[in-house]
Design a protein that fits this description.
The complex is a heterodimer of chains A (168) and B (540). With 168 residues, chain A is α+β, with helices and mostly antiparallel strands. Chain A has 4 helices and 9 strands, in the order E-H-E-E-H-E-E-H-E-E-H-E-E. In chain A, strands 5, 6, 7, 8 and 9 form a 5-stranded antiparallel beta sheet that branches. In chain A, strands 2-3-1-4 form a 4-stranded antiparallel beta sheet, covered by helices on one side. The longest helix of chain A is centred in the middle third of the chain and has 13 residues. The radius of gyration of chain A is 19 Å and the shape is elongated. The N and C termini of chain A lie far apart (42 Å). Chain B folds into 3 domains: 163 residues, Rossmann fold, CATH 3.40.50.970; 161 residues, Rossmann fold (3-Layer(aba) Sandwich), CATH 3.40.50; 169 residues, Rossmann fold (3-Layer(aba) Sandwich), CATH 3.40.50.970. Chain B has 21 helices and 18 strands. In chain B, helix 3 packs parallel to helix 4, helix 3 crosses helix 16 and helix 14 packs across helix 15. The mean pLDDT of chain B is 96. The chains are: A alpha+beta (168), B alpha/beta (540).
């Protein structure tokens, strides 16, 4: 099993996300994460999909996605040519006595404490998936009450090969 | 002027002459508007038939323009689904219009509401839920474009009733389509075409395997010219049967599970196979590795996703079969394949299917052959699904005419509504539907449609009082335990025909066949011919 990150530019139409996720479901493709958000051009949405499969499946995923009428462009975001980021919100159980300890650990990872309650706090961090996984491992001794991860968003490095959806 | 008027004007602008459908409240504004137009509405008797009729209509004229069907929301729309899925599996251009409940009630589960765009997502080429009346012209323009270009297919347009009723000041139909995201490749890559010629020069045993995509691209002439110029033998898939006349010296029949043994033998022994406009699907290629192992496989398809989906080709070539064979035809090369053709011609004799027909009954194989030979040269033959389909594929004689069937979805009941559509599109052609007693009963309600609209269709029913294809499967797979395949309860077709004022003839054995077929084909009128076949007969 290999993993690939695809970057899609799609028409920002209603139902476009369901067309894409539906394709994965009915053809039995594995999707690890999917993120979507509007681009600088409000008519266009950028979707980042992390998919797994063997070479044939990953090739089919790319072809089948490209075939969808709403898809403007699809590219693989190769690890060495791209940057990936994921946002994680981690709600950790933490008695007041442990607060400084947790805050300093968060500081090492440039994570921010964005909410504090009597017996816990919410830590926000961004990074690639490896960094987030490493932080989660580091705070293993604390009880994680809730975890929200966005899945990765990515961009290709440099300014070559940018797709500009033509503006009317 | 309202949204419904605009919908009709869009259809007029696209040159639509006929719409197949079934009205209901949610599509009533549309049917009210179409009443005033020159477009003829054809009332089918169940919604599924409207899609099959639209499919037959499109296919009868080389799939140049989509067939159009229009039904109401809820059950009307869900009944249409099988027809849409059938067209999708066969890549037939189609516009399916459905009425929908009011926009502000969407999602409330109100009377006759069904999320039809959602339900059809996996078997439409594209779909629209129109929420703004001003979008109608653009949506229709795009829908016709998407349905009839690239890999063709059905496009669904769902229009809520309030959008149909909304007032519009003026109608302007766009001249062109502006879709940034949809630009199918038509022309083949020049370098790849050069590689194909190089491989053909080296090959000793080349073979063209033509699928339905050749017909969809209208590439039949270009492909045949190329095959004839270089003497390359041609086999077909089920959907590709009328690419080449069955009488043509280069035609070596249909491949696959139910195909000719000598066609499959040709596939095995070829050293180069050009698969054109075919999906490499399981029924035609049940061992896809055999068409790539030890040979050069060239896959030509307008849909890049089909190339390499099942079998990885040596040369992938994306494009429209017509454009690619036109380009190939301009390249010159020399090769002599006569030895290979001699071998294949020998196989044609040694691997011919041998049958032992029961003389007490009509032999469906011989019967279909005689029938199709007696038909006009340019006739349209439509096979339904079941044993009748396999016997048709195996024994039909196609010359300049068309052979249609639903190869992808295998939807029973296709032939009668498709024949209605085909005859309406090509009134000058003879149109014959061949079905079994099972598939006939799935669509026999459409006899009323044919009668009402004066569409003369000729229907052959091969009666064996069984769901023969399943019975045959149970014979081989379940030791003759025939479960739920007995069709006792069949109507008397003579009386049924008389109820619809359709002339009828019954054939009991082969001695009666030629004369009955002559009578059946004599005039351009509806006719039902029932052939009684051996209930235990097998296609294998």
């Amino acid at each position: 099993m290999k993993k690939k990150v695809f970057q899609l530019l799609v028409e920002n139409t209603s139902g476009v996300l369901s067309r894409i996720s539906g394709l994965f479901a009915r053809r039995g493709y594995n999707i690890e994460s999917i993120t979507a958000g509007v681009t600088a051009d409000p008519r266009v949405t950028r979707i980042t999909i992390v998919a797994t499969g063997d070479d044939e499946i990953l090739e089919q995923i790319e072809k089948q996605l490209e075939k969808l009428v709403d898809v403007l462009d699809i590219k693989e975001l190769k690890p060495d040519e791209s940057v990936y980021r994921e946002l994680a919100l981690i709600k950790v159980s933490c008695p007041p006595s442990e607060r400084p300890n947790l805050i300093s650990l968060a500081g090492v990872f440039r994570a921010n404490v964005i909410d504090t309650a009597k017996d816990g706090m919410i830590i926000e961090m961004t990074g690639n998936q490896g960094k987030i996984n490493a932080f989660l491992k580091l705070i293993d001794g604390f009880e994680i009450l809730e975890l929200a991860r966005t899945g990765i968003a990515g961009l290709r490095r440099g300014t070559d090969d940018i797709v500009y959806p033509q503006l009317d | 002027m309202n949204g419904a008027d605009i919908m009709v004007k869009c259809l007029e602008a696209e040159g639509v002459k006929h719409v197949f459908g079934y009205p209901g409240v949610a599509i009533a504004p549309f049917y009210n508007s179409i009443y005033e137009s020159d477009i003829e509405s054809v009332l089918v008797r169940t919604e599924q038939s409207s899609a099959h009729a639209a499919s037959g209509y499109a296919r009868a004229y080389n799939n140049e323009k989509p067939g159009v069907c229009a039904v109401t929301s809820g059950p009307g729309a869900t009944n249409l689904i099988t027809g849409i899925a059938t067209a999708f599996a066969d890549s037939i251009p189609m516009i399916a219009i459905t009425g929908q409940v009011k926009t502000d009630l969407l999602g409330n589960d109100v009377f006759q509401e069904a999320d039809i765009t959602g339900a059809c997502e996996s078997f439409v080429k594209y779909s629209y839920l129109v929420k703004d009346v001003n979008d109608i012209p653009r949506v229709f323009k795009e829908a016709f474009h998407v349905a009839s270009t690239g890999r063709k297919g059905p496009v669904l347009i769902d229009v809520p009733i309030d959008v149909q009723q909304a007032t519009v000041k003026k109608f302007e139909y766009p001249d062109s389509v502006d879709m940034r995201t949809y630009k199918p490749t038509v022309k083949g890559n020049g370098a790849q075409i050069g590689k194909v010629i190089k491989e053909l020069e080296k090959a000793k045993k080349p073979l063209i395997c033509a699928g339905g995509g050749v017909l969809l691209s209208k590439g039949r002439y270009e492909l045949l010219s190329f095959a004839e110029k270089h003497n390359i033998p041609v086999v077909t898939t089920m959907m590709g049967i009328s690419v080449i006349s069955t009488e043509h010296p280069l035609c070596f029949g249909m491949v696959g599970n139910n195909g000719k043994a000598y066609a499959n033998k040709a596939m095995q022994e070829a050293d180069l196979i050009m698969v054109v406009g075919a999906r490499v699907a399981d029924r035609a290629f049940n061992h896809p590795e055999l068409i790539t192992k030890g040979k050069v496989m060239i896959h030509i398809d307008v849909d890049p996703a089909e190339i390499g989906k099942i079998a990885g080709p040596s040369i992938p070539l994306v494009g429209d079969a017509q454009a690619i064979f036109a380009d190939l035809g301009e390249k010159e090369y020399e090769a002599d394949y006569s030895e290979w053709l001699n071998i294949l011609n020998e196989y044609k004799v040694t691997y011919a299917r041998k049958r032992n027909p029961n003389p007490e009954y009509v032999d469906p194989a011989a019967f279909i052959n005689i029938l199709s030979r007696k038909m006009d040269k340019d006739a349209i033959y439509i096979a339904d699904v079941g044993q009748n389909q396999i016997w048709s594929c195996d024994n039909v004689c196609v010359r300049e005419g068309k052979f249609m069937t639903t190869g992808g979805m295998g939807t029973m009941g296709y032939s009668i509504p498709a024949a209605i559509g085909a005859k309406l599109r090509r009134p000058e052609r003879m149109v014959v539907a061949v079905c079994g007693d099972g598939s006939f009963q799935m669509s026999m309600c459409e006899l009323a449609c044919a009668k009402q609209h004066n569409i003369p269709v000729k229907i052959v029913v091969l009666t064996n009082n069984y769901l023969g294809m399943v019975r045959e499967y149970q014979h081989f797979a379940y030791n003759d335990q025939y479960s739920v395949v007995d069709l006792s309860g069949n109507p008397d077709l003579e009386r049924l025909s008389s109820a619809y004022d359709i002339p009828f003839v019954r054939v009991h054995n082969m001695d009666e066949a030629p004369e009955a077929i002559d009578r059946f084909l004599a005039n351009d009128e509806s006719y039902i011919m029932e052939a009684i076949i051996d209930p235990m007969d097998l296609v294998k």
